[in-house]
Design a protein that fits this description.
By secondary structure, the chain is of the alpha/beta class. About 25% of the residues lie in helices and about 35% in strands.
């Protein structure tokens, strides 16, 4: 079965699409999300084959959400939109599937037939809509936040608790469902270690250690390792 996720902030539109897609037994609907916060969490844990993605959502649009997905594990995307002639022309030009709201059953069936023939990811989709990662959906306990990438001092991954972000706002720490790899592709953060990234704007100084490794000190008095594999990212210690 084709593992399918729906992302739409309108409950009626989401339920209608879920009912219509669910009528085709080839599709297994594994999630229906109301916003990008929920979607990013579920995409990274459930790994859908196909996402029906609303473009016009509050806080984070469908296009912006693309920048938060791992390009090497990108599901097939079908955009859903109520308006936007410019976007529709871009979809047609790049042969990217889209549906207009309200979604008509006969038009949806054409899309479903295409997906049954081929639901492999579309590499061209991120090239057609290049977006820089500007905000990151994060959480602290039960509270959710949108953090500006420019405020991130340091990002690191933990084998047990996932990806953490340390910001310049009172030196707070947040968690995110985005994999660290996403920051390599779309942000100003620089990789300094397999599990660490740094915002160059917050580097106070860099030093080379006796063991051949490096160490970054930030203006917030954080100490961050630089491994041999990433020395070239920091010419001053290479």
């Amino acid at each position: 079965m084709i593992r399918t996720m729906i992302v739409d902030d309108e409950p009626n539109a989401r339920e209608d699409l879920e009912k219509k897609i669910g009528a085709d037994q080839a599709f297994d609907i594994i999630g229906a999300c109301a916003n990008a916060f929920e979607a990013i969490r579920d995409i990274n844990s459930k790994h859908p084959d196909v996402i029906f993605l609303d473009i016009n959502m509050p806080k984070i649009s469908g296009i912006e959400m693309l920048s938060m997905l791992d390009k090497d594990n990108m599901p097939r995307i079908v955009f859903v939109t109520a308006h936007g002639e410019y976007a529709i022309e871009a979809f047609k030009k790049n042969a990217i599937d889209f549906l207009l709201k309200p979604v008509k059953t006969d038009r949806l069936n054409i899309t479903l037939s295409r997906l049954k023939e081929n639901h492999q990811p579309q590499p061209v989709i991120t090239e057609a809509f290049p977006t820089e990662l500007k905000f990151v959906p994060c959480y602290q306990g039960n509270r959710y936040y949108l953090i500006n990438v420019k405020e991130i001092i340091h990002a690191y991954s933990s084998p047990t608790t996932g990806v953490h972000l340390v910001t310049g706002d009172s030196d707070q720490e947040f968690q995110t469902n985005l994999p660290l790899k996403v920051f390599d592709d779309n942000s100003q953060l620089k990789r300094c270690h397999r599990q660490h990234m740094i915002n160059p704007d917050y580097i106070k100084y860099i030093e080379k250690l006796d063991n051949g490794l490096g160490q970054i000190s930030t203006y917030g008095n954080h100490t961050i390792p630089v491994s041999r594999n990433f020395m070239d990212n920091f010419p001053s210690i290479a």
